[in-house]
């Protein structure tokens, strides 16, 4: 037989609709700033709506735990329990107690952010122990990382990425804070640069505003983008989740 062998198929971009919880309500923030909330009602109803629409993943954030203004731990555990789909949990997971509680919800994986910046040895231990169940959130302004609900400075993106790669981190969730909750489109250059610097999968977060943005993120699957988190665009009804899923299935 002769001819060119078929190219291996490129995986489909995974979509992770977001439910960010503040004071028991589903909200979206602008630039992740506390006090910039727009409320969207029951977080459980929002999560169930995304599941009914065909989501394979839910990105569930406890903003109070992230900001240190309390927590929604029981609510978040109840939502995770009610889901038949994969759940990525984020917000305030920084020590053994919060990590054990988060993993015990039955979520598929957790995002560590602040811990990777402030207690790197603890984060490295969590990566070594739980492997694929740990993702690291790289939340950046420019190329400077932010922690504690994005309020504190956390060092250089590239140095931290190299360290986490060496420690065996399975995946990164990359957010450009300047884009988050703004409907201004994702930072594709940042995503490309991170993908060029690591061989680990990258989940894009922040700024998605349209189906065209999803197509643009999907064009980065061959270089290492695995998924895209969608928050504000779904709540603002810029498009439906069904339309988004159909777009990335083409
Ligand atoms: O994820 C966190 O820990 C977090 C902490 C502090 C502020 C915001 C945080 N997450 C926000 C999200 O994960 C958003 O849901 C996501 O970036 C969606 O953004 P967008 O599509 O722009 O609404």
TrEMBL record:
Keywords tagged on the record: Amino-acid biosynthesis, Aromatic amino acid biosynthesis, Cytoplasm, Histidine biosynthesis, Isomerase, Tryptophan biosynthesis
EC number(s) from the headed UniProt entry: 5.3.1.16, 5.3.1.24
Claim: Calcium is one of the keywords in the record: no
Metabolic or biological pathway: Amino-acid biosynthesis; L-tryptophan biosynthesis; L-tryptophan from chorismate: step 3/5; Amino-acid biosynthesis; L-histidine biosynthesis; L-histidine from 5-phospho-alpha-D-ribose 1-diphosphate: step 4/9
Active site per database record: 20 (proton acceptor), 139 (proton donor)
Gene3D superfamilies: Aldolase class I
Enzymatic reactions: 1-(5-phospho-beta-D-ribosyl)-5-[(5-phospho-beta-D-ribosylamino)methylideneamino]imidazole-4-carboxamide = 5-[(5-phospho-1-deoxy-D-ribulos-1-ylimino)methylamino]-1-(5-phospho-beta-D-ribosyl)imidazole-4-carboxamide; N-(5-phospho-beta-D-ribosyl)anthranilate = 1-(2-carboxyphenylamino)-1-deoxy-D-ribulose 5-phosphate
Subcellular location: Cytoplasm
InterPro entries linked: Aldolase_TIM (IPR013785), His_biosynth (IPR006062), HisA/PriA (IPR023016), HisA/PriA_Actinobacteria (IPR010188), Isoase_HisA-like (IPR044524), RibuloseP-bd_barrel (IPR011060)
Primary location class: cytoplasm
GO molecular function: isomerase activity
Function: Involved in both the histidine and tryptophan biosynthetic pathways.
Stated family: Belongs to the HisA/HisF family.
NCBIfam families assigned: hisA-trpF
UniProt protein name: Phosphoribosyl isomerase A
Gene that encodes the chain: priA
């Amino acid at each position: 037989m002769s001819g060119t062998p078929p190219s291996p198929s490129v995986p489909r971009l995974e979509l992770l609709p977001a439910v960010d919880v503040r004071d028991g309500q589903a909200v979206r923030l602008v630039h992740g700033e506390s006090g910039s909330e727009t409320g969207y009602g029951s977080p459980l109803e929002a999560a169930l709506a995304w599941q009914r629409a065909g989501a394979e993943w839910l990105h569930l954030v406890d903003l109070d735990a992230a900001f240190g203004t309390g927590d929604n731990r029981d609510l978040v555990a109840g939502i995770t329990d009610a889901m038949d789909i994969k759940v990525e949990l984020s917000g305030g997971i920084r020590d053994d107690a919060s990590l054990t509680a988060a993993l015990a919800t039955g979520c598929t994986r957790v995002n560590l952010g602040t811990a990777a910046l402030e207690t790197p040895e603890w984060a490295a231990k969590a990566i070594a122990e739980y492997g694929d169940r740990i993702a690291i959130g790289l939340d950046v302004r420019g190329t400077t990382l932010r922690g504690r609900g994005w309020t504190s400075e956390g060092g250089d993106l590239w140095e931290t990425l190299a360290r986490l790669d060496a420690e065996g981190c399975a995946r990164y969730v990359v957010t450009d804070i300047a884009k988050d909750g703004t409907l201004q489109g994702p930072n594709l250059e940042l995503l490309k640069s991170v993908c060029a610097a690591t061989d680990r999968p990258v989940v894009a977060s922040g700024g998605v505003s349209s189906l065209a943005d999803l197509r643009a993120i999907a064009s980065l699957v061959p270089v290492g983008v695995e998924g895209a988190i969608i928050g504000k665009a779904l709540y603002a009804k810029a498009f439906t989740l069904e339309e988004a899923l159909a777009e990335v299935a083409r």
